[in-house]
């Protein structure tokens, strides 16, 4: 009986430990890079050893990531779950707002501004501040935590786009003639007249580059730290009003009216990629945070998902889209007309299906949709103002204060600005595959030059083949023995010519080498060791 009591006392900790190990194993499987390599079938010992070390490294990294997720990322995202025959996309915002807490319910709002629209918007990297721009010149900055209006002004000319720069203190607006840069107090700091009549703006945070595309199809890159123009290229595909940045590799994607998508970097005058995505004009595009997935929409009522590793279509859907946007957790927002749909990858194979839908007042025209970072919120800029809806599961629930801190103080912001300037990346680091940075370029194998005996034997064999080559029988008068002999000599000379040229080239290189050695011998001994460096 005592033994049974002891076993009862001991068993609960064992069960708890087993459950913890099972939970850790399930998290490790999420971070593993597929199934391991079959090492038993390999005959090459060196390759088998290299793969064994690599698999061990992958296992350790997956275990470390699983432990970090368990202890450092306690919060988990939550999605809408339907019961029975219920569909999640039938659940309305009113029902969601009634079930969430008071602070979350305040994040859903409608701001009616009928006279100055349509509106576009942009968020800072930490999701705390929102910049708003109306087509008729209305600019504003809003603190989304306290819902306070920081600054509001009227520039009295057309504004096509707006974007924050490295933080909320400075933003750029694409106005009628050229972009202008303002601070949060509404003071105009710079006017970028070289950019022309800009249609879209994007800021590359890690490189401090402001990218713009104007109505003539010219792509500009300007360094915001030094103020110099880094690049100015003509796309050659006409007017372009669709522009997005792949945050994974900082490559700028442009959608053109001919149905093509081009990808650019500031150090190349030609596009890195040019692909025909649609038979009609591109109306919207978006890049997944992972960097390997792209969504495009065309005027022929097709929305396509592309795998950027193979540049192939994964799935094609029917529908129009004026604006596309991926969230931090991979949800896709599709805005068109007076309705917005949110798609979700249910199975993990990039096969998106409808997750939520939101209909606005009939007659509203969606201009732009944007997810708020680290919050389950989607903001919509439309022809009659601004709207914000709750989208459960769209935002990253755990933030890294070293990357983006929604609650940062003024001192933390200043320190982050200094660190980001010190960590600024040069434009040359922008490429399609950023993982190749830091790798050593493989050495080109030099062709083994044949020895003198081998080249002579090869020449003799070519001469013998030329001598034994049959000659064509010509007409009477053109088949004389002298002419036949002359043709044989011409064939032998033609065969010998490359070998003789190679011999002449080797002799010239030998003479240059001897001359250089003689010149080096005339120098003092103290300077001879510097001669190879001076050349």
Q: How would you characterize the overall build of this protein?
A:
With 535 residues, the protein is an alpha+beta fold. 28% of the residues lie in helices and 30% in strands. The protein has 9 helices and 28 strands. 26% of the residues are buried.
Tags for this model:
535 residues; alpha+beta; four-stranded antiparallel sheet; elongated
Topology at a glance:
Blueprint: H1 2-31, H2 45-72, H3 93-99, H4 102-105, E1 109-112, E2 119-123, E3 129-134, E4 138-143, E5 148-154, E6 159-164, E7 170-175, E8 179-183, E9 188-191, E10 198-204, E11 209-214, E12 218-223, E13 229-234, E14 242-246, E15 251-255, E16 260-264, E17 273-276, E18 282-287, E19 293-298, E20 302-307, E21 312-318, E22 323-326, E23 332-336, E24 339-345, E25 352-359, E26 366-371, E27 377-382, E28 385-390, H5 410-422, H6 452-467, H7 481-522, H8 525-528, H9 531-534
Helix pairs in contact: 1-2, 6-7
